[in-house]
Protein 1
Amino acid sequence: MWQKFLRPLLLVFTSLRLTVILLVLSMALVFFGTLDQVNFGIHETQKRYFQSFLVFWNPLPPESTNPLARTGLPLPGGYLLGPLLLLNLLAAQFYRFRWSWQKSGILLIHSGLVLLIVSGFVTGFLGYERQMWIDEGGTKNWAESYMENEIVLIDKSEENRDRVYAFDSDHLKGGEIIDDPKLPVTLEIEEYYPNASVRQAGPNMRVEPAATNGAAPRMGLTATPAPETFAQDEFNADTAIVRVYDGDRDLGTWMVSNLLDDRFPPQTFMANGRVYEIALRFKREYYPFSITLRDFAHDRYPGTDIPKNFSSDVVVTDPQAGVERESLIYMNNPLRYGGHTFYQASFANQDTSSMLQVVKNPGWTLPYIAVTLVGLGLVVQFGLGFFRPRRRKTATATAAGNGPQPPSPDAQA
Amino acid sequence: MKASLLRLTVVGLLPFLLAACGPEEGEIRVYELTRPGDVAGADRPTPQAPSPGAPAGDRGSAPGPMAGTGNTPPAMPPGGAAAAPDRPSINPSSQMQTLPGMEEAAARIERPEWQVPGTWQVLEPTTIRKGNFRVAQGDEVAEITVTAFPGSVGGLASNVNRWRRQVGLAPLNPEQIAALTVPVQVDGAPAELVSIRVEEGAPSGTQGVLGVVIPRGELTWFVKMIGSSALLHEERDNLQRFAESFQFPS
């Protein structure tokens, strides 16, 4: 019974027609995604087009108030096309192809393609990028995202140690209550703005500060929602108004924003007899090792301002592993340590600060293996094909009587 | 046929199993960090503005108009940290990590003779800080440090911009910086007195920097006062007299 239902499905998934349709849709996805990079930048486009199930392309800019801007051409996203392609390839491989040495090249090619698609998923789900700014002579053991944010509560009560409670803030909504047994207090997100205009009220302006405690009343700060930006050289000022409850006790509200960064004094409150700092910041990741920037070099071609080379002379220190390793990071020569890759990405402060792009991608080796498999498969398949026609030709020639004749029994005699 | 279907089902589920491996969005992460003084706790380093892909030189600027919002968020860090005497140092440089050998090199530098103003509290010097002082007036606090480093340490503009960033101000070009400096004489040699947001009657919590940059042989000496803008305005003459009292060992 179930075979009656599954068999037609199997035929659909194993069809070459589906492969063609999926490849055409993939090309369309890449084409429209490329067009939308103008509006959304590379990261948002990647998220919208390749890390989604469905996307609507619209030629109107995102800030357009035209009602048509809310609709668009529907396209299957990467998370739909990828698994379907994978399924199609695997189904065809297992169902249509017969295993034989003559087809071992095709098997290798298909294995490589499967691995390539899988590596895309591994990177999409498990990989991430961070930024690590280090001043010359400085040491860092953490890097931060430049797109994702987190709300943190930091217990500052211990003499030498901080206990950090963190959760992602990018998907918060106004009115949401964060009541988790892991958290020492209950938080109510009164307002959440993915981008905000934070202003300091002038001396003659009668404006209520955005919150009852912390920086907002002290500095007369107000926050109003602003349209999100996707420009490469800008970032969204994620801002939230958070009410804190210590049990049933309402401690008031705090305005937290990634604008109020390390240059500002921490915003603190007391709950359960302990002192907590509250902040919204770019999402951080701490490492068990640290990196010291000994020197950043910005070489130019002699007599010009044309950059020739950027490099960071760093020392990696990992006390647990007993490692102290020197490394020079420059273009196409990243540092790989602890499952992370550190690329030279930017610099600032009159060439005294360096920015390293920290990439963690557990599947970084998979594309290399996949491409090798595909290459090997092509060589094998063409190699086998190279010999096959000769044998056929020989057989054909023999049948026509033009080729070399097998020795006759008479001749042998 | 059955085996094919089974294999098909298993491999078809693979992408979705992978999807399940991703971190949950609402997950609460709890971890512990060691405070500064230890590398693992260096979570309040030199102030750095997070501007992805920002052009060189833009980083570290005050959070001015950004994100297409045209907003002008507060440019100065308000007080609070400085007001509490038991809080850690208000000077961002106090959390500076040093390279192996740097402290030994600094220890070999001999400090000059100087005359400390009577209102200043003398704190314990360190190998890096040749002089370490604090001055307080009510809730207003300022810290004074004397340091020396080999070479020009990036030059005057670079150091002034570093100080500006520490109080949340955007960097300036060399011409604008020249307008902030006043030439002074220290032990018979020229030096520069720099004023960054030193304002009479500035609101409580407004932070500024007063600094004297003294090139001396192969070293550059820095006398830096960071803290309440209003207090800095009152202490300006004291700082200048203090720097001018320097007598370097011959």
Note: The first strand of chain B starts at residue 29 and ends at 34.
Protein 2
Amino acid sequence: MRIDKDLVAASATPLVLGILADGESYGYAILKRVDELSGGRMQWTDGMLYPLLHRLERLGLVEASWGTSDVGRRRKHYAITAAGREALVERQAQWDVVAHALQQVWRSAQDGLQNPPRVAEGWA
Amino acid sequence: MAPGTAAPDAASPGPHAALEAQIDQWRGYVRRREAISAADVDEMEDHLRERVEDLRATGLDDDEAFLVAVKRMGTLDDLSREFAQEHSERLWKQLVLVGEQPGRTRSWRELAVVLGLAAGAGVATKIATSVLDEDVVALNAALLVLPFLTAYLAWKRQVTARVVGALVVPFVALGLVLNLYPFEPTGSTLVLAVLAAPAVVWAVVGVAYVGGRWRSDARRMDFVRFTGELAVYYTLIAIGGGVLLGLTTVTFSLAGVDLEPYLDTWILPLCVPAALIVAAWLVEAKQNVVENIAPVLTRVFTPLTLVMLLAAFVVLATAGDLADVDRELLILMDAILVLVLCLLLYSVSARDPLAPPSFFDGLQVLLVVAALAVDAVALTAMLTRIAEFGLSPNKTAALGLNLLLLVHLAWSAVLATAFLRGRRPLADLVAWQTRFLPAYAGWAVLVAVVFPPVFGFV
């Protein structure tokens, strides 16, 4: 199953902030974590992560610092800031509302499948 | 430079030479995209190499791993578009060059449009100066020249009919108001209207520049940059033109021809307005040539202005009795605050938003604080005087501008301090700079349109 592009884009910010809330990380590791969390079903275009991280940095939600990897390459690490944690809480609340609404819709849709719709009568 | 080339050798010696060459080539391709900086390429290269290693661990060879990794990174066009959206300041110098690529016909047509509009601005001014009184020309100066600049920008941005309407209406309305008001010939409201009208019209130019999207902070900041570069270009053209004219006049005088009578009546009315349109075209076409001049000037003048302000503060504070200072002091203070604001605006507009706070940022906060201190001393002196003699149109206009500048700079100082201490991102400071600008246009409208009837046109 492939996840719709818009859905991936909408969930990218809370996912990244949530992963960084667990501790400092860097681009490739963040993507691998997304892969693990979604069981490989959320496929990002790798490069697109970086403009997103830079936007979060500009908005002050994450802080970046340059370090070195095990093999001595330059590597940019990202850490969540206090403002980032606030934003994450806010996003989480928003997603809870969306998820809750969707669950109700799924349930009524399922009911609808079991009991054929009588909507037409109501309108008539 | 080392991170890209030297370090990997430790991890992957000889056998992977082909892979190293491929990665090098990839770096080259990515680096050519203006929106992606060297640091971004380093960051993505680190990613690419990890991806390649992971893929090799699953049994792919170098070639296969590289191909898959590059494919997963995304196409360069998509990537650079995303980076461009996030880092528009890097693209500022590229906007026009990208637009010109489709063909050379457009640039020739553009040159024709520019020369036509420049000639139009010159001729309009020439006709006005030979037909109308000096006062009336001064009152309408902005309305004579800037519609041509607006027309150029509107043509260049291919604005919609609605935006054209939004551009034409203010010109017509302001023209009617200014010319139908029964100004006293030497009244101060006339002088104020002469001074405020260009500011009003400049806001209209701004709407044309941003193609009607004046709500966008980023576009407004682009207009600020445009204004600064236009001033730089215009000054350069004026100096060059002055030298050329001087040489011509001297040469002609050797031959017994006196050029001076034509200078005021023909050459200046035609050339001064036309040069503005040409300067605007140069800024649009050659942004990358002087893109760094305004920021460099701010770097040079920020410390100097700080010294000047500290000296002014000492002089004002120790002068004792400031009670008999006149509105000149207030106007002088406005000029100083405008200067400080420009220094702040242009360094903020050119600053890399991701760079950490530096010594220069601290210096800038000091500058703003010093300006506010000097202004506080001058304002106290002025307020006692206003309390004594009441408000004249001049004092009200100067005081209003002073208060606007005060609010603008004071909140800038708060935001800049918060940025220095890591409490707020630079984006807040940038957004505040451009969001406050419409307030000045609003005040200029008040001064030009509402003041004259309120103060009885004197």
Note: The first helix of chain B runs from residue 2 to 5.
